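To whoever is covering the structure queue this week,

Two jobs came back overnight. Logging them here so there's a record in the thread.

Job A:
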Amino acid sequence: MSIRQLLLIAILGVGVGASGQTYRYEAETGVITSANSTNTRVASSVPGFSGTGYVTGFPNQDAVVDRLTVGASLPEGLYDLAIGYRSPFGGKGYELAVGGQSGSGMFPLSTAFDEITAGQYYFDGDPFDVTISEGWGYYDVDYFEFRSAELRLPLPTPTTLSTPNPSPNSQYLMRYLASQYGENTLFGHQRENGNPGAILSPGVLNHTGGIMPSVIGGDLMRYSPSRVERGDSGNGESERLIDWAQQTGGAVTMMWHWNAPSGLIDQPGQEWWRGFYTDSTTFDLGAALANPASNEYQLLIRDIDVISGELQKFKQAGVPVLWRPLHEAQGNDSGAWFWWGNSGPEALKELWGLMHDRMTNHHGLDNLIWVSTTQVEATDWQAWYPGDDLVDVIGVDVYSNADDNMSAQWTELLDEFDGEKMIALTETGSLPPEDVLERYGVAFSYMLPWSEGFLTDDQTPAEVQGIVGDTDVIDLSELPTTPWRVIDSPLSGDFDGDGDVDPDDLAVWRDHYGLQTSTPADANNDGRVDAADYTVWRDAYAQTSVAVPEPSAWLLALIGLSRLTRRGR
């Protein structure tokens, strides 16, 4: 644990509520807002509730949003929120407002009264309201209970990748992400797929104040064969992102809105270009996987091979990819949004394994870091997880109000994967509030707002700039010189490309030392970074008439040992 993490815990420990204290507020004591008294009301007919009753209804059938508001007051500090509930008609979504902070979640199916955790909240000691809005409706609320909590930061995670013999650059990226995890979050952004002229739109850059993301997301959707057959084109998306990565040293994450290989309905509202949606194709994944001799199975292989060809371009350029296929497969408790989830979790996991094997072993794609997106608000989401041996990073997609601290989703994933996998915010409608790491320990590896409209509509430029400019958020200018960056400098030893040979270049050499690949610090172009490259820097730096630091044998050994230690964490 770093000094900064210890300081965070020490600072927040002062504000933690009394140890072990719980504060329960009964739902039946609150104020109900409803179109009429029969919609949402206090009841006591179902046994097993706490207090004198519970609030039932939330019918979601008229223009008035039914709400329940309960007043509360707590000592200053951090608290876990638990909600007593009953949801006899299946999983139901709800919306929450707690003391000016937003939250959301799902009540799992339960015919008896049960309890769920609903995130963490920090209070300054003033009275506040807890309001639950109907969301999907048709559930019962029994109580809200706040339990004093302590700041919990994630444990270090292993850096071993699921790909056998991964490329040096993918290992470098994984180690770098792990070194920042729990202390800093990389600022990313999903590129506008229909904006071929620029990596980011002017609207996004205006909102960020010109601050560039350190991670850019792209989509291989338009390379899907069933789209290309109908005249669509990838339009150079792969090359565009490779160029950006090589020019800037930024990280790339790619997804694939996989247009179904066949069975496109192609009618109004179900057009062929919507073919990744369940409602726009008749393609049956389960049936295809059950019969490897079938045409449908062969089409799966065809499509995977085509996309592997695009990812090969990144490999050949030395660019590692945070690869996030088959995203949001589970959808929610109403069903799968995309065809790759429509046959259930076992078919999804089989397809993931097929893709992993085909891309890794058949196509030799050693530059991929495999990211699996979980649907933590859905029932039994763990059943959809492909497995530790096929996943490198856990992702979660959160679309909620801009003041949602996202602690509910973060805590659920941390309980499942802490110390095993890094957790990333792979899609979001808005950036997490500025204080989420300091107050809640919400420490996503990287965060990726979804396209321009979400970022510019949900948060003001001042809010966005406050978040991305925070000391625990890493933008493009704060990345180290990565080994896939291409630097064209006339100065030998200018490893960071700033036009000077100085100690910053020595830092790049130290960071890349031991890599067996071409990097900006590979001064003699022999495909490895070693003492010979230091000599190039030393001789160039000596011309500045400044004393040159010599790396002793023990320092070189220490750098190598440090790299091996990071590899094995």
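Job B:
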Amino acid sequence: MELFLLTLLGLVLGSFISAITYRIPRGLGFIKGRSFCDNCKKSLSWFDNIPLFSFLWYRGNSRCCNQKISIRYPLIEIASVLGIIFLYPNFVLILLFLLTFSILIIDIEHQIIPDELSWLVLFFSLLSPISYPLFSSLFAGFFSSLLLLTLYLITRGKGMGLGDVKLSIALGMWLGVEKSMTWLMTAFIIGGIVAGVLLLLKRANLKTKIAFGPFLIIAFWIVLLI
């Protein structure tokens, strides 16, 4: 029963993440307004919005225009379920997962990191009982952001963006000084490996822009949980 409820919660929250990661980068309100079809823009009924079930029921097609529904929706919902089940019953980490997962999706799809999401991560790091003492957290955030800001200035924004700098403040405050150093090293290693693979597969070249935020987030969770 508990697993069923967690799965249900994960699907609902995953559906919400799908919505906000679609709407925020496009400047659309995510509190007001009904959901609509990505293809024909018609409003969707409640039956069209049942997480995962609607996608499977309509075999991946939109009921209103019979166009393909993006696979991003069921993938986000399934990933949300797995994340919540894995982190339960630590609701602080579940909330952090939902926020960072949203940032990861937006940065991959649009190469932007919304300030409001980074500041929410920062806000909860100040309130979290699992974060480090305030001075250590502040210093870690300052150290992390200063390093990335330096790289941003040296590369003139080509190596990373200011969104990465702001995100590093929030994530660094969760980890403390020692773990922040390991975290940043891990992020650069993962980023280098991914970039190398993309170059070898000719899916990218030296001028291709690759979002760095996802590497920061993946490395953050590796360091936090190990």
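Note for Job B: Residues 1-89 form one domain.

Please reply-all if you pick these up so we don't duplicate work.
Q.
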